[in-house]
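Quarterly update, task 2.4: magnesium ion-bound model.
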Amino acid sequence: MKCKTDDRSSVAAVVVCAGRGERSGLPYNKVLHRIGCKTVLESVLDVLCRTEVGHVTVVSSPDDLDRIKEITLQYENTSVVIGGKTRAQSVINGLKAHKCDIVVIHDGARPFVTEDIISRSIASAIGFGSGIAAVKSIDTVKRVTSDGVTALPRDELYNVQTPQTFRYSEILYAYDGMTGSPTDDAEVYERAGFKPRLIEGDYSNKKITTPSDLLSLSGGCKIGVGFDLHRLVHDRKLILGGVEIAYERGLLGHSDADVLTHAIMDALLSAADLPDIGVLFPDTDERYKGISSMKLLSDVLARVTEHGYGIGNISAVVMAQKPKLAPHIESIRSSLCEALEIDKSRINVSATTTEGIGLIGEGNAIAVSASCILTENNLG
Ligand code: MG
C-alpha cells in the first residue's frame, strides 16, 4: 500500500509512537507488535494511506528509530522524527517536521481506526477548525474527592480518542503557547482559546494499552500437531533445532534430518491448514538433499505468516535414549526462536527417554512430538 500523491497533500498526519507502553507487558514498543503479516504501526499507516492524508510523520523514540524507519520505508511520503520526553513534546516535534493546512494527530497504538473516522475528522477540521474523535461514555463515571463521591451526568460525558484533527496553524499556535501537562491535543487547543469540535468515533477504535488489549489483536486460535522420527546411524551429524550436537551417531534423512525442526514445521503447517512437509519438500527432490532444515523452517514461517497467522506458542518433546539433551535445550530454544522471530518464552522444548523400550530406547532412533497454537490476525 502506498501513500497517495495527488492534490490532497495539504492534509498531513502525525502518528505518535514515542511512548514506552510499559503497561502492555511487552519487552518492546507495542506499535511494533506483530500479528501475522503486519505490525500495529503498519495497520495504522495502511489506513491513513487510504485517506486524504498526503504525508505522514511518524514520531519515534530513539530506541525504536531503526525499526520504525525500516517499516516506513514501505510507504511513500512518510518520514520519521524523534519524539520528546512527553507526548506533547513528541506532537510538537511531529508538527514542526512537516507543514500543511490540516493535520491529523493519531496514536500509533490505535490500529482499529477506520478511513471513515479519519475522513470525517478532516472534513470537520476543514469546516470548523477541528474534528476530535469521541464516543459517549458507556460506564457511569464518579468524581471522588475528599468531600465524597459524586455521580457525573453520563449524557454529558464522552471518551475522547484519536484521530484529533486541526487546522495546522491553529494547533501549532496552541502548542507554542502550551503550559502545564495537557492530556490530549484537544485540551491544548481549548486552552489556547479555540473550541474543539467532536465527531463520532467508534468503540472499536481502542488504544492498545494492556496485555488483554494485545489479545484483542488476535482473532481465533488454531492448534497444530506434528510428529517425526529418524533413525540414528554412524557417519551423520546430529542436528536438533538447528544446533549440531556432538555425538557418535547422527540422524539419517534426505535433508539434514533435523527431526525436531521437522515436527515443528508440521505442527505449524497443520494449524494453518497447509500441506505437510512431505508434500512441500519431498525427499525425492534433489533441491532438498542435505539442506538445512532451518532454511525450510523460514519458508514455512513465511507461508504461515502470509496466511495471516502469528505464533502463539510451540511446545515440543524430544524422545531420545541418548545422547543426554538437557545441556543443549537452551541453545536449541534460542536457535528456534531466532529463526521463528518469536520471544523465547513462546517456545518450549523438553526431552525424555523411552525407558530403554523399542527402537528409541535401544538408541537407534530419535522421535519428536510438537504442538503449536497459531493466532489469527485481527488487524485490518
Ligand atoms: Mg523428518
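Highlight for this quarter: The pocket of magnesium ion is lined by residues 228, 230, 253, 259, 262 (CB under 6 Å).
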